[in-house]
Amino acid sequence: MKIVAAFLCICFTTFAIAQSEYEPTTLDPYGMKNPKAPKQLDDFKPLIGMCDCDSERRNPDGTWAKAVKMTWKFKYIMNGMAIQDETLKADGKHSGSIRQFNKDSLQWYVHYYASATPSATLGSWKGKKTEDGAIVLYKPQKAPNGMDGFSRLTFYDISDKGYKWIGEWVDPKETMSFPFWKISCTKREE
């Protein structure tokens, strides 16, 4: 009986390790990409880690508010099969996203949540990496005047030293855009 119990314990431990070997740990706080994950997880590879950022949002009168300091952390989750990010802002408004790549549609699906606006359903954007290296995501959204369009979120100027991000409303043909949020990030030395 002791032999069977020891065997089951070893099997369960091996199974548990295999299910979490790419998760964040004390030694590797951002986890690792699972070799079985879609290669497109590499789109976000330069963003994995911690950045110090300035976040600027548009005021109701159209001017830009004073920049808010924040940290933006990206890490692998779901045993290295997806990516999660979280922001911690000096103004106490925090947010995050779950990022999964769908091999069938060849698109990223990004689900956003925020501490200031708890929601029964999460906002969801989809998109992909462009030829110029930007990551562009869209969600249908009407303008305040009722005009059809999209919320377009773009990561750009991506490097090992940091990146920039912009949120814009765009019309369906993307001939008109109205930036409503912009963030500039510098990778933290670790």
- Quickly name the level 1 CATH class: Mainly Beta
Helix count from the secondary structure assignment: 1
Strand order of the largest sheet: 1-2-3-4-5-6-7-8-9-10
| Major sheet characteristics | 10 strands, antiparallel, barrel
> Averaged pLDDT, please?
90
The poorly predicted ranges are: 4-16
| CATH overall fold name | Lipocalin
Order of H and E elements: HEEEEEEEEEE
Give the number of DSSP strands. Answer: 10
The fraction of residues assigned to DSSP E strands is over 45%
Task: Please indicate the count of domains.
Answer: 1
Shape type? globular
For the record, what is the CATH homologous superfamily label?
Calycin beta-barrel core domain
What gyration radius follows from the Cα positions, in whole Å? 20 Å
Kindly state the percentage of residues in helix: 10-25%
Structural class of the secondary structure composition?
mainly beta
Distance between the termini: 49 Å
Q: Under the CATH scheme, which architecture would be assigned?
A: Beta Barrel
